[in-house]
TrEMBL record:
KW Repeat (keyword) present: yes
Protein name: Copine
Swiss-Prot/TrEMBL keywords: Repeat
A Pfam family of this chain: C2
Gene3D superfamilies listed in its UniProt record: C2 domain (2.60.40.150)
């Protein structure tokens, strides 16, 4: 197939060598009134044009067939630039209060303020430095050791980045702006992620002092509130048309018949008198009584957040041939008018009379609003702040394609002086994610190796090589388990993803559908996947569960098949089933590896930060898309006991067998676990 594609211009769907052929125009004057006389030259031109049209048609059909057979057409490989700064996941306000501050004044109490700083990276590799920059300060509270500051600290929240904050409290005794001239009362530091995910909505931290006040322990309490401003409200519409008057053209009625389609367009009225289209419905069947599918429009888009502001609804008759759709009629209303009206409100569509007089419009039908309701779109922070726990698991490729671990060229080579790519990727992702799980525990697995004591091939096993020690504590625990597995297993193969993903499909199917738990599976691999069809089918099943999959490609492989799993442009499809949503994010580590990879600790921290930004950027949207599709609201603030909330709800399963579509049938494997049948 690749050889045929080399000679094909895919932009137009014609073979490239045809572009060199030219068509010589016929000589002599053209008589437009005369009937054309067939000629040999004319026949050749017609045949050539017909042949080009057929090749174009078959070329496009070929592209569609390839897209169906191979699930999606990957873009041409290219090096990805370092991730640009994306918009914030949310804007948050910090509300601060303190208790039992030190009293540094002799004749009165302290007059405290709180200054907030954020750690930022300055410079470029290899000269990176972390410096603290002030992002805001509170007002001064006079004569108080238990201040409650009213001024809030506003900052942007990025899920995919570390945001280290420092809080400094000073006793202000003069009008000087120089903090060195005021008494220092205490300091504390934390991550913004710890604040937004605090179990009770507030994080309390002890204040540390210098020199002469080591035993006094003031306390700073920090609350994070998401700035909403009504930006996430939307209006849900269910509306049908009744008795719409269509075109009276006899030819149009004869040709179209019942195939006529109509659609609605919603317009926001601007302050300068212009209009801005904010939504267009699908083309509904039926000329007179169309039924449009339910749709939602943001309040911000529809009326700039002003629910009494009028907006316009226009109804059109679709005319695909000309593209000039016929206006059936229009109406104007407001969000509050629809919300306050009785259910089943009917509004007339109006249209100017034949003479164009809009002062006396006539009714041309009715729009029946069966349902209009206001709903708030829950954000990622809504779920995190209400106690949702992100549960993380790591699965490491331990196949022989990584290279012999004793050789420095191996991707699994352990060096005490620097992290290898696997270690760097693990720490980059989990150092961000551990703040969203109160237990700081992770599940750690490997696949594709021969494991002791029998040294049979296993496609899912605990990195600690003990079925009762699948869960490890902290990022350091995952790294220790990984190093243990590298030393004590025999790298083998093949590279099968489906057994691991299937395990977590089963696990998450037992999760309560109340927004309290969401699973993230991190897979690290170096090569070509060998059970592609089974993996795609399992990912399709996983798309219906509260889980996401992150795949990081280690090494310099092309990873073409991995790109096919990251279905950003179209949903995955297998065995007649389509994925409910996109849950896979694939990133090759080599895009961030290279000249910047040195033994310098600051350079490694920089690589970890840019990798985490790229890998984790889509996770908040994936969480929200699942919750929205299942109509799940954030859980109430009733935290469960830790041992109940995080105990594995599924049995310990034996190592999985090789998938049916794996060519390595001669390998030994333990019997497959009793998985439930795929939906």
């Amino acid at each position: 197939m690749k050889e045929r594609e080399k000679g094909r211009n895919w932009q137009f769907g014609i073979p490239s060598h045809w572009e060199k052929q030219s068509i010589t125009p016929m000589a002599g004057p053209i008589n437009c009134d005369a009937r054309p006389v067939p000629s040999a030259a004319g026949h050749s031109i017609y045949l050539l044009l017909l042949k080009k049209a057929l090749v174009t048609l078959f070329g496009r059909l070929h592209c569609l067939c390839c897209a169906h057979l191979f699930h999606r057409i990957p873009p041409p490989p290219q090096m990805k630039a370092l991730p640009k700064d994306r918009g914030p996941c949310a804007r948050v306000e910090l509300v601060l209060s303190a208790k039992s501050l030190a009293d540094r004044d002799l004749f009165s109490k302290s007059d405290p303020i709180c200054l907030v700083e954020e750690s930022v990276q300055r410079g470029t590799p290899p000269n990176l430095q972390n410096v603290f920059v002030e992002i805001g300060r509170t007002e001064r509270i006079k004569n108080s050791l238990n201040p409650r500051w009213s001024k809030k600290i506003l900052l942007s929240y990025y899920f995919e980045s570390k945001q280290h904050l420092r809080f400094n409290i000073y006793d202000i005794d003069s009008e000087s702006d120089e903090l060195s001239k005021h008494d220092f009362l205490g300091r504390c530091e934390c991550e913004l992620a710890d604040i937004v995910s605090a179990p009770d909505g507030a994080l309390s931290l002890p204040l540390n002092y210098f020199r002469d006040l080591p035993n006094q322990s003031g306390l700073l309490t920090i609350c994070a509130e998401e700035v909403d401003d009504g930006q996430r409200e939307s209006v849900h519409f269910v509306c049908h048309g009744i008795g719409l008057k269509q075109s009276q053209s006899l030819l149009n009625s004869f040709c179209m018949g019942k195939r006529k389609r109509t659609f609605l367009e919603l317009y926001r009225l601007m302050d300068n008198g212009s209009r801005l289209m904010v939504h267009r419905t699908e083309n509904a069947r039926g000329a007179h009584n169309p039924e449009w599918k339910p749709f939602e429009v943001s309040v911000r888009h529809l009326c700039a957040g002003e629910k009494d502001r009028q907006f316009v609804v226009e109804c059109y008759e679709l005319r695909e041939a000309s593209g000039k759709h016929r206006l059936v009629g229009f109406l104007s209303t407001s969000v509050n008018a629809l919300l306050n009206a009785p259910k089943g409100l009917r509004l007339e569509l109006l249209k100017a009379d034949k003479k164009g007089h809009s002062d006396h419009p006539k009714a041309v039908g009715t729009v029946h609003f069966l349902e209009v309701r206001l709903q708030r779109e829950h954000s990622f922070l809504d779920f995190v702040s209400r106690g949702m726990q992100l549960e993380f698991a790591v699965s490491v490729d331990l196949t022989a394609s990584n290279g012999e671990v004793t050789r420095p060229s191996s991707l699994h080579h352990i060096d005490a002086q620097r992290l290898n790519q696997y270690e760097c990727a693990i720490s980059a992702v989990l150092e961000i994610c551990e703040h969203y799980n109160r237990t700081k525990q992770f599940e750690a697995y490997g696949f594709g190796a021969k494991i002791p004591p029998a040294y049979a091939v296993s496609h899912m096993f605990p990195l600690r090589l003990n079925n009762f020690e699948r869960i490890v504590h902290g990022v350091s625990g995952v790294l220790d388990a990984y190093r243990c597995a590298v030393v004590n297993t025999q790298l083998f193969g093949p590279t099968n993803f489906a057994p691991t993903i299937r395990e977590f499909v089963y696990k998450t199917s037992k999760f309560p559908r109340d927004g309290s738990r969401y699973q993230v599976l991190l897979i690290l691999t170096d090569g070509v996947i060998t059970d592609m069809h089974s993996t795609i089918r399992t990912i399709v099943d996983a798309s219906h569960q509260p889980m996401s999959i992150i795949i990081i490609g280690i090494g310099n492989d092309e990873f073409t098949k991995m790109d096919a799993l990251d279905a950003d442009n179209c949903l995955l499809f297998a065995d007649g089933h389509t994925a409910a949503r996109d849950i896979v994010q694939f990133v090759p580590f080599r895009d961030f590896f290279g000249a910047g990879w040195t033994q310098n600790a600051s350079d490694q921290e920089y690589l970890k930060s840019v990798l985490a930004k790229e890998v984790l950027a889509e996770l908040p949207d994936q969480v929200c898309s699942f919750m929205k599709s299942h109509n799940i609201s954030p859980p109430l603030r009733t935290p469960q006991p830790v041992h109940q909330q995080f105990a594995p709800p599924y049995p310990i399963l034996p190592a999985t067998a090789i998938a049916d579509d794996t060519p390595h049938k001669q390998m030994h494997a333990s019997p497959p676990p009793p998985y439930p049948p795929n939906g």
